[in-house]
């Protein structure tokens, strides 16, 4: 039992939108105050609310006598005092701090090489502490940055890694699968991202060169074919002209021969 003249202050933490239960029960008659202003009284575990903002927000468990505050907001941070006037007389104050909910961290692979891997753990809110664990050992931590890098060496790829985001009220953890996030795929018949980028770039360059060479060859072949067509056309025209001249000379020769023969017959008669 604590004397009424003695006031004990304990720290409590909670997250916005969550609930908080004050640890000390009020079994008979008592009160609840916030920043030295009475917000409710408790009589035989029944609550009478004096402040409208605590209606449907402050409750007393009829079985345990514990005071519970629900639907917490940032403005609910402050000093809460509960007192009991029954056989167990006490006054206890709680310094409640309401925090933003902790975001589950995200882990991305920054780079992979043959002997190491760089991972980046990140969150969106600065009021969060980030920690990198290898098995149960803390490797790196930051209490203000939005992101926290970690270099994992090849000899440690078989260890267990996780990133934790926390504030005084709660923490959330993300376990990292090194096999999929960090292992050098070259050991498994694949290629690291750097190697893959090299292969892609090389393939693109080779494709461009192939297209240029192919276009040049097509142009050259078409040009030669065009010249050959012109040559063939010229040759054909020459042959046609020769045949025409030959045919004309033959016709003239035959005509003259026949005419001369007829003329000779006529003279003989």
UniProtKB/TrEMBL annotation:
Subcellular location: Membrane
GO CC terms: membrane
UniProt keyword Transmembrane helix, yes or no: yes
Record domain Ig-like: where: 105-179
Keywords: Glycoprotein, Membrane, Signal, Transmembrane, Transmembrane helix
Membrane-spanning residues: 198-219, 240-261
InterPro entries hit by this protein: CD2/SLAM_rcpt, Ig-like_dom, Ig-like_dom_sf, Ig-like_fold
Name of the protein described by the UniProt record: Uncharacterized protein LOC128366852
Upper lineage: Eukaryota, Metazoa, Chordata, Craniata, Vertebrata
């Amino acid at each position: 039992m604590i004397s009424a003249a003695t006031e004990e202050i304990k720290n409590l933490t909670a997250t916005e939108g969550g609930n908080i239960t004050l640890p000390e029960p009020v079994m008979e008659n008592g009160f609840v105050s916030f920043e030295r202003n009475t917000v409710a009284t408790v009589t035989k575990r029944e609550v009478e609310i004096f402040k409208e903002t605590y209606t449907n927000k402050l409750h007393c468990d009829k079985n345990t006598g514990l005071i519970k505050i629900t639907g917490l907001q940032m403005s609910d941070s402050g000093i809460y005092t509960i007192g009991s006037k029954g056989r167990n007389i006490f006054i206890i104050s709680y310094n409640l701090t309401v925090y933003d909910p902790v975001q589950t961290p995200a882990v991305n692979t920054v780079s992979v090489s043959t002997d190491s891997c760089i991972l980046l753990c990140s969150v969106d809110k600065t009021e969060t502490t980030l920690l990198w664990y290898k098995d149960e050992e803390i490797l790196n931590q930051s209490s203000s940055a939005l992101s926290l890098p970690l270099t994992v060496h090849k000899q440690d790829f078989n260890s267990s890694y996780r990133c934790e985001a926390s504030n005084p009220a709660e923490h959330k953890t993300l376990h990292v699968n090194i096999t999929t996030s960090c292992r050098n795929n070259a050991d498994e018949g694949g290629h690291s991202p750097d190697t893959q980028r090299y292969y892609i770039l090389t393939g693109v360059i080779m494709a461009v060169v192939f297209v240029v060479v192919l276009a040049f060859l097509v142009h050259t072949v078409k040009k030669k074919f065009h010249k050959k067509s012109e040559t063939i056309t010229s040759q054909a025209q020459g042959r046609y002209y020769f045949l025409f001249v030959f045919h004309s000379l033959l016709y003239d020769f035959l005509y003259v021969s026949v005419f001369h023969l007829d003329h000779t017959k006529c003279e003989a008669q």
